[in-house]
Amino acid sequence: MPTKAELTHYRLQAMLREHSFSDLEYLGDFPDQGHTYRIGEHEVPVEWIDELDSCEDEDESDTV
Questions:
Q1: Cα(8)–Cα(3) distance, rounded to whole angstroms?
Q2: Taking the chain, what is the end-to-end CA distance rounded to the nearest angstrom?
Q3: Which of 48, 49, 56, 60 places its Cα 20 to 30 Å from the Cα of 7?
Q4: Residue 46 class from Cβ within 10 Å (0-12 exposed, 13-18 middle, 19+ buried)?
């Protein structure tokens, strides 16, 4: 059974495949940190990520 960190890594990889982010980059799987991402200016091991939230812009044509 995958760990929470592995599931977060899989979700981030899917997001990176499907979308382009200027502030999110996969840096690699480091022996001392595991899967690590650049988020903004910070290098963050996936184990430090508690949750992923979606922040989508609403298209004005979708609002009433």
A1: 9
A2: 44
A3: 56
A4: buried
Q: CA-CA distance, 63 to 52, in Å (whole number)?
A: 25
Within 13 A of 63's CA, how many CA atoms are on the CB side? 4
Instruction: Tokens for 39, please give them.
Output: 């988020």
List pLDDT tens digits, range 49-63: 999 886 665 555 555
pLDDT for 57 equals: 59
Tokens matching residue 42: 């910070």
Task: Write the CB contacts of 45 (distance below 8 Å, at least 6 apart in sequence).
Answer: 30, 33, 34, 35, 36
User: Residue length, the chain?
Assistant: 64
Give the whole-angstrom CA distance, residue 12 versus residue 6. Answer: 10
